[in-house]
Amino acid sequence: MHPWRHAARETFFEATPAACRVSPVGERDEHESLFANQAELTSSMETGAEHTLIIRTPDDFHLHLRDGPMLEAVAPISAAQFGRALIMPNLNPPVRTVRDALAYRERIMAAIHGGQSEVPHAPSFEPLMALYLTDGTTPEMVREAAASKVVKAYKLYPAGATTNSAAGVTSLEGLYPALNAMADCGIVLCIHGESTAKDVDPFDREAHFVQQTLPGLMAAAPKLRVVLEHCTTKQAVEFVSNFPEDRIAGTLTCHHLMYTRAALFEGSRLRPHMYCLPVLKAEEHRSALLHAIKHNEKGRFFLGTDSAPHLEKDKSTPKEGCAAGVFSAPCAMELYAEIFDSVNALEKLEAFCSLNGAAFYGLEPNKGSMKLAKRARSVADSVPVHPLGSAIVPIRAGHEVAWTCSRIEK
Ligand SMILES: [Zn+2]
């Protein structure tokens, strides 16, 4: 059955901002009690009935949608799972001005409401725009961005750190006036936190940035609100957790929460579709990320998939090397559900996916809901991008995820 039609019948479920409900299918009614604790969940699972969670519609605070045919192929996929997404500006050329952002936003909306994808149209989706910080960003540009209302953040890419980051920042000192203007206007700074120094090992780049660069940046702009994007190390989550003021947060991807660098070499073969930046890390770091989502009392960690599609030909061409990025959009929420389930923390899933990020950005939570059923489904082998004659291979391609998610709109 068409997933949206199925979802439409479920509108009698009310989302609760503070807790998730879990109940066997067939025994639900609108007066059912709130999900109480893990023991209740575990005991009801033993009966063999399907279990469901209802949470507020989630947001993705770190998403790459690309442009052109790729945008048309992937935007509806994220819109099927998320109510809003913060759209990363690393196009080529980058999204630098309010004008660029407004035009890109229009292309995103057109892709969702009439692109080539066969994914059903999402009930509602709002792209939140981020601008690309460069050495030339001025306080005036920041104030114009804030006045636009559609721009919520600037994204700092150290020059050369990742895909399309050649125009990124080479020196932070000259940007302090712009950073302080962001603080004054309520614009968030999102950081790709990796050192680009040639002598730093790729697996140590994030820890190096967190220890050598981030403290100075936080001190130089003492009111700036900062998101350390895609935290992948214990150093990153400890910095965010222990920072003495409530003006820093961290996004966590599903792939860094679920996989270690071993996934890059599984079965003695190099796995290009698991190659991303920051690169997957060792188990001790993944454990620190899991600890962060389980003990997220300050609400500083929230969802950012960093879903970053590349065509298969760009992932597997040996001559030019493999592009960095994991495409998780087709099953992102299912993977987050698996992760929270694996650490017995499903009652923390809603705050992570649907509340903490909105609060940090000063937004109301979404109005609709999402139903997550613990029912396996398979993930497609690939998402075709017909005009480009290639396809995007998602994470878990051709395999199953343990949950099935569907949005429920009011
Ligand atoms: Zn990214």
What does this structure look like?
This is dihydroorotase. Keywords: Hydrolase, Metal-binding, Pyrimidine biosynthesis, Zinc. One of its GO terms (cellular component) is cytoplasm. Its EC number is 3.5.2.3. GO terms for molecular function: dihydroorotase activity; metal ion binding. The chain is an alpha/beta fold. The protein has a single domain, classed as Metal-dependent hydrolases (TIM Barrel, Alpha-Beta Barrel). An eight-stranded parallel beta sheet has the order 3-4-5-6-7-8-9-10. Helix 6 links the parallel strand 6 and strand 7. The chain is globular. The two termini are 20 Å apart. The N terminus is likely disordered. The structure holds zinc ion (ZN). The site of zinc ion (ZN) has 5 residues, from loops.
